[in-house]
From TrEMBL:
Xref: Gene3D superfamilies: 3.40.50.2300
GO terms classed as biological process: response to arsenic-containing substance
Species annotation: Metarhizobium album
Phosphotyrosine protein phosphatase I domain location: 13-148
UniProt keyword annotations, A-Z: Arsenical resistance
Protein name: Protein-tyrosine-phosphatase
Pfam family, one: LMWPc
Length: 157
């Protein structure tokens, strides 16, 4: 008896990352995903509420040679496109907002619990360490959940 092999799922063609204010977690995830996923994958990020750019994000992204460029935080209402194959939420309020937003759409919404590094107090180095932890956590999730399970080999630096 022949056994049918499952084909690996394809990487979604469009991915939206959502967090609270689109200032830390979701823009980090967007930049990381752009650097890791195949060209042609549409990747965006947004927040539930308006936010302001966080300079610690720029510092920890520059450490791995990535940049947000001139990108500013945006809310879900400000998105140019509103159809995505996959929405990844990084905070509880973002997950609730995404479920509400997609109530009548057939879109996959996935929750990746991710620490808010702004809750960490201490020295500049301790704060940066928390931001690095978030950056590295997101990179691992993107690699494990979007690349490996989809049969795409991640490049190593």
């Amino acid at each position: 008896m022949a056994v049918a092999l499952e084909e690996p799922a394809k990487i979604p063609k469009s991915i939206l990352f959502i967090c609270g204010m689109n200032a830390i977690r979701s823009p980090m995830a967007e930049a990381l995903a752009r650097s890791m996923l195949p060209p042609g994958t549409y990747i965006a990020s947004a927040g539930v509420r308006p936010g302001e750019r966080d300079p610690f994000v720029d510092v920890v992204m520059e450490e791995i040679d990535l940049s947000l460029g001139k990108r500013l935080p945006q809310t879900l209402d400000e998105l140019e496109d509103d159809f995505f194959d996959l929405i990844i939420t990084l905070a509880p309020e973002a997950h609730h907002a995404a479920l509400e937003l997609t109530r009548s759409n057939a879109v996959e919404v996935v929750y990746w619990p991710t620490l808010d590094p702004t809750v960490v107090a201490g020295t500049r180095e301790q704060i940066l360490s928390a931001y690095r932890e978030v950056r590295n956590h997101l990179a691992v999730l993107i690699e494990q959940r979007l690349l490996r399970k989809n049969g795409v080999k991640a490049e190593t630096a």
